[in-house]
Amino acid sequence: MTSRTNVPFTRRDFVAASAAGLAVSTFAGAVPAFAQSGPRRVIIDTDPGVDDAFALLLAMRSPELKIEGITPVAGNVPLELTLPNALRMVEIANRPDIPVAVGAHAPLLRRLVTATYAHGENGLGGAVFPEPKLKPIADPASVFIRQIVRKYPGEVTLITLGPLTNVATALMSDTGLASMIKGVTMMGGSLSGGNVTPAAEFNVYVDPEAARIVFQSGIPVTMVGLDVTRKTALTDAHVKRLEDAGTQVSLAAAKIARNDIDLNRREGNSSGPNMHDSLALASFLDPTLLTWRDYYVDVETEGELTAGETLGYRPSESGLHGSAATLAGTKTSAVLRDKFVPNAKVAVDVNSPRFFELLIGRLASKA
Ligand code: BDR
Ligand code: CA
55, 152, 165, 298: which has the fewest Cβ within 10 Å? Predict the structure, then answer.
């Protein structure tokens, strides 16, 4: 165990820590991003989406971030809706300076599966907002990601809140790109069961091949999965605080939340929605909200029942094997690359009250 005085971890730190066998909670004692000098460059890749919308509003209310751009992708709803939803959030936050670049219509190799049962037919819980006046930039998302990363090598973190199609497309188009990306902070995956199938979390389930490319890219990944995001149910009291604040941002967030809470109840859920993506965003602002462990994470892409499952291997579990060979062949499943060197910091616990204080406090603030 160690403590850090600086966050987020850099590629060099990550490799050094991994090589030294530092396995747990390397964010413990970290200085929150609030205390760091100068805003940090991020691109937010997203499929809004109720919790995406909250995450975007939180990001645009966070002076620690230099948001280089937003790249909507198909996921919770089709791109035809995630794109205008992202533009709407930019307008509501009055941040027309932030470019929005059009992402992928469909996963790399699979048919799109959406989550309208959780986000409503329009992706915002059914909350209706005017058509956005802002337009996306001409370059597509994968090109935009490349351009920004190459412009600021080693400085840009990708915060991914949806299927990883855009990021994987950018990585595949430019083999040198991964080494220039500072990190990926991802809402995705789970080491404790899925929310679409018993095995798979939605973002990884939708495009498992893309997720695998990201996990295997060598980019330090910070994984905020269902293990922690399931502990972040939005309540009526949170929404009331947003309504009472009465700002453009807080009222828009409250409207989305009210609609989605109602939708959740109609769907038979007694609590929620969960603020999955907002927690991932918040983890970048303040990693001390969560407890972290090093894992080697890989994605199941071929399982008949388990495509999109994320498997986490602990560095200490060096006795683990690949799947047994069949009678017809000698092939076993992949044994972990690089002898169990971690490729991800996985969030394993969260201080939910502190997270909501950050989220609701910022969305409700007048400044
Ligand atoms: C993830 O899937 C989506 O429905 C949410 O927006 C979040 O990104 C949770 O599994
Ligand atoms: Ca999302």
Answer: 152
Tell me the pLDDT tens digit for each residue of 236-259: 999 999 999 999 999 999 999 999
Can you name the residues that pair with 347 across neighbouring β-strands? 292
- Please indicate whether residue 51, judged by its CB atom, sits closer than 6 Å to ligand 1: yes
Nearest ligand 1 atom to alpha carbon 161: 8
Strand, helix or coil for residue 282 = helix
Exposure string of 181-196, with b = 16+ CB inside 10 Å and e = fewer, is bbbbbbbbbbbeebbe
Domains of the chain and any CATH numbers: 37-314+332-364 (3.90.245.10)
One-letter identity of residue 287 = P
The secondary structure of 175-197 as a DSSP string is TTSGGGEEEEEEE---SS--SSS
pTM of the complete model: 0.90
Other CB atoms within 10 Å distance of the CB of residue 19: 10
Distance of CA 250 to the CA centre of its chain: 22
Would you say the C-alpha torsion 238, 241, 246, 248 has a positive or negative sign? Answer: negative
Q: Which residues pair with 71 in a beta bridge?
A: 45
| Residue spans of the chain under pLDDT 70 | 1-37, 316-319, 334-340, 367
Distance 48 CA to ligand 2 centre (A): 6
- Closest by CA to 228, choosing from 246, 201, 249, 204, is 201
Handedness of CA 30, 31, 34, 39 (dihedral sign): negative
Q: Please report which residue ranges of 5-77 form alpha helices under DSSP H.
A: 11-19, 50-60
In the residue annotation, 105 being an active-site residue is answered as no
Prior bond of 163 cis (ω within 30°): no
Ligand approaching nearest to the C-alpha of 206:
1
State whether the beta carbon of 49 lies less than 6 angstroms from ligand 1.
yes
